[in-house]
Specification:
It comes from Nitrosospira multiformis. The chain is 32% helix and 27% strand. By secondary structure, the protein is α/β, with parallel strands linked by helices. The chain has one domain: Rossmann fold, CATH 3.40.50.300.
């Protein structure tokens, strides 16, 4: 299985250095929780890991090779769920899931989309426009992608935002199964989440 490695990473925004000298190594079955106060660069680091931003210094390597030189070989192995979720108000839950999956390279038919949404507790709401869903339900639509993406590396920015207790348990189960099957996860969260049997490392940004 591949590894994800950060080597002496530095992030600069405007005239401010958010972090420097960040190093980590994530292996199969491992979860890395990125921690730190607001403004410490947590989301910026995740955006670097998924190729949406470049470090001012340092390298990010996937199985020993810089991600920028890998192109689709890396991006096809990774799923990024951002803090905002990207759910479109005028599309139904099924349409949102199918379109977001297609953008990630997954051709998802309506039956599989329905099953994923039902698993996430959205049974009966699949055909409703997202604008009538609660914030927690919209977040469940976003998280349903994890059931169908088929990627090794998940990069999750505050995945538990707006979720109730039952939804947090669902996400916990998704994470545990992914790691059990050799998957890898980088995530930020302000909420406590218990992950059974996982090799967890914590990366503290100040």
């Amino acid at each position: 299985m591949p590894t994800l490695e950060g080597i002496d990473l530095t992030c600069i925004r405007g005239d401010r250095k958010l972090f420097s000298g960040v190093n980590f190594l994530l292996e199969s079955g491992g979860l890395m929780q990125v921690q730190g106060p607001n403004g410490s660069g947590k989301t910026s680091l995740l955006r670097m890991l998924c190729g949406l931003a470049s470090p001012a210094e340092g390298e990010i390597r996937w199985d020993g090779t810089q991600i920028r030189s890998l192109g689709g070989d890396y991006f096809g192995a990774m799923t990024y769920l951002g803090h905002l979720g990207g759910v479109k108000d005028d599309l139904t839950a099924i349409e949102n899931l199918r379109i977001s999956s297609a953008l990630g390279g997954v051709d998802l038919d309506e039956r599989k989309a329905h099953d994923a949404l039902q698993h996430m507790g959205l049974g009966g709401r699949e055909l409703l426009p997202a604008k009538v869903l609660s914030q927690g339900q919209r977040r469940r639509v976003t998280l349903a992608r994890l059931l169908v993406c088929g990627t090794v590396l998940w990069i999750l920015d505050e995945p538990l935002t707006a979720l109730d207790t039952s939804a947090v348990r669902l996400v916990q189960g998704l994470i545990e199964r992914h790691l059990e099957h050799g998957g890898m996860i980088v995530m930020t969260t302000h909420q406590e989440i218990e992950i059974a049997g996982a090799a967890i490392q914590r990366l503290q940004l100040t």
